[in-house]
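Continuing from the previous page of notes. For each protein in this section, the sequence appears first, followed by its structure tokens. Read the first protein now.
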Amino acid sequence: MPTRRLTDLAQAERFRLLIEAVKDYAIYLLDADGRVATWNTGAQLFKGYAADEIIGRHFSTFYTEEDRQAGLPERALRTAAEEGRFECEGWRVRKDGTRFWTHVVIDPVIDGGELVGYAKITRDVSDRRIADQALYESEQRFRLLVQGVRDYAIYMLDPDGNVTNWNVGAQAIKGYSANEIIGRHFSLFYTPEDREAGAPAAALATALREGKFSGEAQRMRKNGERFWASVLIDPIRDETGRLLGFAKVTRDITEKRQAEEELERSREALVQAQKMEAIGRLTGGVAHDFNNLLTVIRASADFLRRPNVPEEKRTRYIEAIAETAERAATLTGQLLAFARRQPLQPEIFDVCARLRGLHRIIGSTIGSSVIIETDFPEAEHVVEADPSQFDTAVLNMVINARDAMPRGGTIRIAARTVDGVPAVRGHAAARGNFIAVDIADNGTGMPPETLKKIFEPFFTTKPVDKGTGLGLSQVYGFAKQSRGEIDVASQEHVGTTFTLYLPSANGQALTAGAPAAALVDLSTVPRRRVLLVEDNEGVGKFAAGLLKELGQTVTWVGDGQAAIKHLESDPEAFDLVFSDVVMPGISGLELAQLIRHRWPKLQIVLTSGYSHVIVEQGAQGFPLVRKPYSIDGLLTILAWKPN
């Protein structure tokens, strides 16, 4: 046998072995009429027929009955013969009658220009079809889901920001149909000012940089109407990280915003109503208490005007006017303390030492039916606050405790150091070291509704004319103005504990004690040349007359500018400037600072009933006399000489 013939036979055998080894594909030949001529292992596995069962039978055996009736086998061969190839996917039938989905390729076999048969390759792609079908169904469900959402605009953007799809919700919210908007840039939905500011590009940049963009802003509908939108933009990437575009979700929150704005307006109206109620209660309380005080003053003054009033009665009416004026000054001081507008004169003092000094006053105030217990550590507990206001606050709390025990009881006063102040009555907690002063009683206690109002001005549970309702308001104002806090805990029929917190000043040197005020002998008061600066005509005339009665030489001017002119014309003409703080133009404090700079040897004393300048900036080291001032107060100032 020739060598070439042997080689061809060997190659044919190798090719046969190759075809037989393929198990994932059915590879076989058909003759020109479509009968099976060869059969491989893969074909047997797919179709279920052995070679001797199928060779010689027509390949239409593998088709479904409906495909055979439709002439699909003949059309497949005709297409392959005429077009050189036939390829499709479809159902086929195994020997056992089960169906499977196949991918089929049929190629014509030509020998010497004559069609001698067909090469047919079939692959079972049932698993892939199931996966494709599942994916398709999932995509359809997702599409129906997205299209069914009407409250949200859900759509895609390409990497440049152009709209690529559009749901029903987007059309309902934006007003554009899919045909009108797909392919256009999403910046169309932004307001002109946002487009000019570069907001669309910034949103996409944020989404790329941070993984998402979210926000609330105004957007535009097709008809030009603006609406509030909640926007979310997420970048979409493939498995390699390549940017495919952006998913964008928009919700119309106009009604929500309007509801929030309406709620805020209602809240502001409620707050305003509460303010007006508080102002009404405050003014009513002030009017009530001051009318009581004015009744005493007016009646006493009327009696003093009568002729031939006995000296004993004259003295009694004068004392009544003086005492009532002191009560009026105390009342205004309590109001200013609650408003945190009381001018304070802070000093550094030991709380424990101060409380020990108050022990005798407290004992005489509360009476013998109440027992006082104290717990004061030996170590200093130092604070920086106004000591006289501290005394008043402690006495107000003690008096409140006494009144809660009409049949007697025990008041316990203690001082301690605490680390921070807990959240109190809705206020945030405070950090740092504080000195806490506890004043506890075992009296009647208070219900929760009373505790909520306990620090309000003129709120009182006492009978009419048994209290002003300003004592605890003073404690509240003093605590707040001293950068501290006041807390109260109470249980009905058990007792109440007030806790005053003041920032600790431990480690700082105590303020040197001022000499006790003494009644000044009029004969020892030096004669001063006083420049009186007072813008209120009534007060100015009265103060000028009072100072003259005290033997002083007085020049009265109505404002700071006039005072400066007098000093510039003859600075040696005065050795004391006595100035009100609140005046038109230059204030008393500004005048004092200017005098200190230009005429440093000239003594300056300030006076005020209330000044926000003094509250906010302090007296800047100048002596301050609080209105209403007394003759003794004026004499003390006139007798005082600076170091």
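Done with the first. The second protein uses the same format. Note its length before scrolling.
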Amino acid sequence: MQSQDVSQRHAPSSAGSAGPVDVEQAEAALVEHYPRLVRLAYLVLPPGLGRSRRVLTAHALAQRALPRGRKQPSALPAQASGRESDPGYAYLRERVLTAALEAARPRTGLPRLTQLPPPLPQVWGLKLFPRSGGADELALDQRLSALSGPARAAYVLRGLEQLPDPDIREILKAAGVDDPGGALASANSVPAQPGLLSSPEFDPCSLQARPTDLMRRRQHTKAALAAAAALAVCGALVAVPGGGWGPDGAAAPVYAGNPAAEAALDPGRLTRVSPTAWRTSARTDFSVWPARGPLTGDKALLRRALAVWARPGERVRVSATPGTQTGGPAGPPQLLYAGEVDTARVVLLYDGLRIARYAEPKDGTQGAALDFARADGATGTAASALVLGRSDGNVRYLTAPWVTKAAQRDLAKPDAAAAPVPLADGVTAPLASPAMQTGACTSWTALQLTDASGTRLATDLGELVPARLTAGRPGAPEEASGAQALRTWAPFACSLAAERSAGVRSVNAWAYAEQPLPDGSGSGAWVCTRAETWRGAGTVALAQFRTPGGAAGTAVAKATDVPACGPRDPHVLAGVLWKSAAGNWYLLAAGSADTASIRATGGVTASGPGPLLAVRAKQGVRADLKGTLADGRKISGLR
């Protein structure tokens, strides 16, 4: 058990101006802020490089930014706090920005060094892409691609770095931009969306991989040349004057004529379930969902969706929950929805194992997004809703046909009433998406659904299938919509942020102990949250502790892929270092109700009967916890 201090928080560093930078200082700044610098380079680099080349170039530029010796960086305005007070970061940012702008300039004669393939890192046989966002991210990427390099840099410095315009002018001037004022003016043509710039869509450090030339690797040289020629001809044939859609949209060219594959691309063969099938079927899963939406008869849209699923092209942003395959369907899938959602046309499909969401911009610009989520074994509560789209910090859901009412509630406010959410043909009105929430967490929106069997809660964790929320002892949890369950979840709602985009199927909160505090100030609450995934592996158990005056709980122990705190082993033991109001430090430990005794070793040596232990300790010590259950079995502290 690694003891945690729940009594102190670090204040931000004081303001400071940029000073001389040596290699060691710059290297420390690079290690600390590497993801930020790579994101900055990725956003400023020209989109024409292609997403995979753009990712590698962004990493190369950030790694090249280290100085070769001591160097005084350009004079930059002093910032208030945080990374902006670090002269090493200011210097590296200027270097990265200068190199990215150099790569964005049109070539004249021989290419510049930054326009050559980056010497490192190199990836062979794979293309790397950031995780795909929604229609808003796609639209922003297209708007940024229409700007000049300096204008993109101005937009990113304003939105991502949150710098005022005078500082941006100085930085752009230092980076060699001739007209910083013009760059700022051009950046004004794109609406400010700082939250989107921080999204996974523009994160070149969180990547997915796809093969480059998998098909051609298996062919002889002569066949490869013939295929390349056919590909060139096919590309010319499907191109549509004026930038419109071809019949297959953003799909790649056809590799081979396979009857089963061709059948899967035929919109006329899509499975369409009767609107009343769910009323008589014994099943309560996606297989009985009817096809809904005003565009279910748009064969051109459906063909594009099917073709892109089978053969996503270069302009398609593909994302998948962990453990989900992204290959084409084995046969004609089931149509769940086709319609317009905010700024995109959306198609939802189901092949019995996966949900696929296809989205293309309504304005007809090229490019598309393709998202996948596992749904095997989803039934009842797990098949009650799907994410249709996210926009402007909100999310819209498509609910199951058996859902009669929808509402939203703030999980952090258990006593507040749920607010009704209108439903139109199963589609909810927009509600706040915690998956798109930035900054300090003060609330957490959950979707409340009601049907003939009761009321339940789910929440958006950034994937197509919202995660079910429950509360209670593992093995027999209850829906989190009850009054006691809501009070259990309230202090720990914001801990759900750690489970975003992890393929989570459900999260249970188990209040397993109440511990009187040694100074008589009340009792501390112990809760174990456990996130189960669709793929089985990757489960996360998190022990959290909350003192009487604390608004939120503190995570004190975490374990991955362990049975503790789950239905197979409904037991848990965790500890924390706690400082009393009088300034005394204690080791507090708590186990589930059937813990017969607890023993601490290491920095603290103590033991006691029962599921609770509180002993004096020194600040910063580490202790290992062991417990004995009532049946004699030994357990260890969660780690």
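What the second structure shows: The longest helix spans residues 23-44. Residues 83 and 631 are 53 Å apart (CA to CA). We return to this in next week's lecture.
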